[in-house]
Amino acid sequence: MALHSITTQRRRLADEVYDQLVQAIMDREIGPDDRLVQEKLAAELDISRTPVREALLRLEKEGVLHLANSGGFRLAKISEEETLELYQARAAIEGQAARILTARNDPEELERLRVLIRQTEDLKDPTTRDYFIANRTIHRAFMEAAGNRFLLEMFDMIWGRAMAFHLFAAIENADISKSLGNHIELVDVIATGDRGAALEAFTDHIQEGFELHLTGIRRSA
Amino acid sequence: MALHSITTQRRRLADEVYDQLVQAIMDREIGPDDRLVQEKLAAELDISRTPVREALLRLEKEGVLHLANSGGFRLAKISEEETLELYQARAAIEGQAARILTARNDPEELERLRVLIRQTEDLKDPTTRDYFIANRTIHRAFMEAAGNRFLLEMFDMIWGRAMAFHLFAAIENADISKSLGNHIELVDVIATGDRGAALEAFTDHIQEGFELHLTGIRRSA
DNA sequence: CTCGTGGATACTGTATACAGTATTCAGCCT
DNA sequence: AGGCTGAATACTGTATACAGTATCCACGAG
């Protein structure tokens, strides 16, 4: 039999709405002042309120949206304090992935990472968003290589939220190129087999990102 | 004016259903063979399907339930492999919290932790579940003290899932008392101010838990 | 008896209808 | 004019109705 099973892939309308909302937030089509109302969205998408409601509640539970006091949902704001906490969480998650990769000691896997990094860092005339995506792609590759689904899930949660918070809009003014050049070094540290060093390298890398982020905020203020 | 604002606390039926389901899972009233069907549950709770559906989908998204192929939801199973990943994730999250606490160096906070630990460890004739709850209470206190809401959120996710997986049923046979005696030492390590040591202590503590867990599994097999 | 077929059944997903509540605004009273 | 009051409005939350699809079972053909 040459036919393949049709992976019917249980796609719900709510998922579609969710994805569209996330996309719209990333594309800055939804700003902090917009009010998202179930009925309005449903009318606009020409579907019923039920799946819209489901998507909105999901985004609320994820901390991306919160109920406005006058009804409707708004983008959640993030403070400088919370930004620090987000980076601390990143360090925990990604540092652990680095430890795991170091312990595993799989040279082929590391080589694959090197190739991907070189490909991904090769941006011509990148915008802030290109930078954000490239950076996430690279970091996510480390996580996938570590092969821990819970850590990966948390990674996605953190970066998803960063996206939603328009966290990287603030880096607009910062020196982007500075931040995208040292990922190969991370692989090198992992290759040495020193777990503590690998963790430190990742922590430092993320810390640098945080400082770059802060200078971005301060410069734009 | 002596009146306080009534915090109307937007409690949805879906939240209620969610809590009841979680409780029922913890109490082993819902087992791996039970099929949770929206209509049945709604009838039983005497409410409509809508909030029931919402709660079920939430639990599905959290990885606690998954759709049975013949309709309805079932408890998700966890493999030994996944169990390891769960403990690795714990180590990442709680280890980072330990680092933060160490860096903060707040003796009063540590003293509060010591008091709580002594109170919580003082169990008379504990069941496995008592142990689970006490252990979680103590570990959660460290997380709260660290004061990072994202790490705390992930902690809750991990432990919630552990609960759902009936992860600790396997410890039934293991030596419980062995595992609940060394939390004060964790505080002591934090108090030394050595961040690396604090992280290692937590990692080791969690690793021990994992091994205890495995012996529990193997003994009951 | 076995296998295939058709229909009943059991569920989910989506739409719509209904109810309750907070917010807003216009009109009245002072 | 300013502030209180009450109705209209704008939303959400919940219930119910409808549609589609996968599963299961019984029946008939080979």
From TrEMBL, chains A, B:
Residues 11-78 form the HTH gntR-type domain. It comes from the Bacteria. The keyword Lipoprotein does not apply. InterPro entries: GntR_C, TF_FadR/GntR_C, Tscrpt_reg_HTH_GntR, WH-like_DNA-bd_sf, WH_DNA-bd_sf. GO terms for molecular function: DNA binding; DNA-binding transcription factor activity. The keyword Transcription applies. Keywords: DNA-binding, Transcription, Transcription regulation. SUPFAM superfamilies: GntR ligand-binding domain-like, Winged helix' DNA-binding domain. PANTHER family: GLUCONATE OPERON TRANSCRIPTIONAL REPRESSOR, TRANSCRIPTIONAL REGULATOR, GNTR FAMILY. This is FCD domain-containing protein. It comes from Sulfitobacter sediminilitoris.
